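Practice problem: predict the structure.
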Amino acid sequence: MLKFLSAAAFSLAILFTFQTPQVVAEMVYKQAGQDNSELVIGTRVVPPFVMDEGDGVYSGITVTLWEQIAGQLGLEYRFEEADIQGMLDGVADGSYFAAASALTITSEREEMVDFTHPFYVTGLGIAVQYRPSGLMGALRALFSPDFWWVVLLLFGLLLFWGLLVWIFERKENTEEFGGSAAEGIGSGFWWAAVTMTTVGYGDKSPRTIGGRIVGFIWMFTAIIVISFFTASIASSLTVTQLETRVNGPQDLPDVRVGVLDQSAPQSYMESENIRAQAYSTLEEGLQAVQDDEIDAFVHDAPIIAYIIQEEFRNRVRILPNTFNDQYYGIALPLDSEYRNQINQVILEIINSDEWAEMLIDYLGE
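Answer:
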């Protein structure tokens, strides 16, 4: 692949070696059917590829790439924001000279527009709810609704059996279950608890026939109950620390999935017959993951990783592996005659040390 790109760059370099930027610019404007005025470039804010700095100023990986292309070709331009479909339609009907954002090259889009050589290759990533491990995970589990529902159910069961034994013992066994109703029921609750846990301090014991029948039934029932509640409490304590139900793309058909509307991941889900909820923005999709409205949100890995780092840290995380490679390119009109000029510059840029350093600055190692 690298040999092919190098050969292509060398061939294009020979073709345009003796053409000044002014000559190339005039050629591009002429081929685009435009005068030497500002070219309109469709874009869409997708950090870290395109970021809005305000007052019509943009930054990011794709913006830097286009700035260098325009600088080398001597092009004057301005950016105009649009959604994904708007960018493609604008390029197709000539409203935009090009569309530069984080546009994935797909066969469906190639029917509408042409693309330059890919300037970035990534894959789809899966964002899931963040679940802390270790001490923090254990503390979070202690305050989880599932854990407290189990505790409340156990409390209610002990209270029920304690009340039963008090009903039978309250008159004939006043020494151990006497006093006010609250005191007697409290004594019954204590008896039920120590009987269930087999501690059996012996300070409370039924003496009436009815009380002993209740005690006999509760002792055998408690064997089953304690096993059930031990398993339930252990499960509720560990389930919040376990990995999400989604560990890779193979799990997506069985969980609630979200994607960005009009995006390449949405097309991928449709092709795989995976039902997915469409969201108008990436932030909405990641918020849905955080709120447990969906189990996973699928989008281009570097984009959601960047947004998670900036806005959803310790609330949403991205799984380590990617799938279904995505190739980013700049969209141009079909059969564009100036695509070669732009491709030459792109190949020079992406093979430079400065480009590699810039990717590290934006995306990390």
